[in-house]
User: Fold this.
Amino acid sequence: MHHLPQLLIGCAAATVVACWAGSSDIVLPAANSRGWSEMASTTATPIPFAAFAAGSLHSSMASLEQAATRRLIRAELLHTATSLLLAAVLLGTATAITGSPGGAAEAIRNLMLYAGLALVSGRVFGRASSWVLPVAGFIIVAFWGADGAGHPHSWAWQFQVYDNAMSWIAATSWLVAGVGALALPPRPLALLTSRIHPHHRIDAKAGPVGPGGVRQARRS
Assistant:
C-alpha cells in the first residue's frame, strides 16, 4: 500500500473526531431564509476518511504508474477496497458507540458518497487533491441543501435520514463511478488542457523556452 503509515495515522485521527462528534448536530451558515442550517455531524465526519483512503493511492512514482495496466488496476482496487473497509469499520463503530446505530448507517452511506467523489477528484486533479470534490460537495450541500424550515432538498443526499432509499442509490452510484475512474487515464483535465492549448504541452526532448517564446535547444 502507498502511504500506509499516513493512512493509519489519518484514520486514527479521524476516528477520534468521529467519537467526539457522535451523531450530534452542527450549525453552519446557509442560503435560506434563516441564514443557517442544522445538520448531523455525520454529513462531515466521513470526509477525512474518504480523502485519506483515496489520497493514499498517491505515489512519488506516479509518473511511472500512469499506464493503466490490468495489474496496476487490480492493485489499486484492492488498496481502495481495503482502505474503505478499514474506514467503514472505524467510522461506523465510533459513530454507533458515541451516537446511534442510525447515525452510523448515515455515516457509512456518506462515506460511500464521499469516497466516490474523492476517487473521481483524484483522477481529475491528481491523487494528492482527492479531498477537493468531497469538500466542495459538502460546502454546496451545507449552504444550499435545506430550505428555510430546515427540510433537506431531495438532492442533498448527505442530509437524508438513514432509511432514505434514494440517498443510498446516489451514494452507491458515486462509489461505482469512483471505482470506474481508477481505470481512466490519470488527470484527464490536464490532458484536455494540453489539447485545447497545444503550446502548453511539455516536450521532454526540447529545452526551456527562452525570450520571445523561442524554445532553446537542450544541452546534451
Summary: Confidence is low (pLDDT under 50) at residues 60-65, 200-206. The first helix runs from residue 4 to 21. The beta strands are 25-29, 36-40. Helices lie at 4-21, 46-55, 70-98, 101-125, 132-144, 165-181, 188-196.
